[in-house]
């Protein structure tokens, strides 16, 4: 038996309401360029709108002019999607509360998640959206996931409940020590003062 190895999210497709409210939210609120439009090839009564969430991948929305926005929370039953998190820069993240408030969009405020800060709010159809900003940049040639697994190992070894900034900093130091050479034979911390 052999695995099927994924290499990232290709796209996520959501069921939307009408075309214009879809464009207004995904491009007009979240800034995702509207890049492609065609009928839903499995249901010609629906549109299929494509947006770029910022990394060149795709968020797609099925639209239908007879569907109207419903503001109830979407189901969170087993098998349902709880929420989607989108990455934003720290500079943008610090503006989210003000920009949501200006539109009258209710939100969670900033939530400190240890390794990232998050803000939650619902789209016009009641689907939970998270805007997340990492508190760290991975070392050159590494990914956020590599830092996270190293920070997890450090956290577990320390007996801590969740990943914090100290675990991230130590993880980054370990990754740099493994991936970048030095002429020094002793790379331990020093106090030159």
TrEMBL record:
Residues 8-134 form the VOC domain. This is Glyoxalase. It comes from Thioclava dalianensis. InterPro entries: Extradiol_RC_dioxygenase, Glyas_Bleomycin-R_OHBP_Dase, Glyas_Fos-R_dOase_dom, VOC_core. Pfam families: Glyoxalase (PF00903). PROSITE patterns: VOC (PS51819). It comes from the Bacteria.
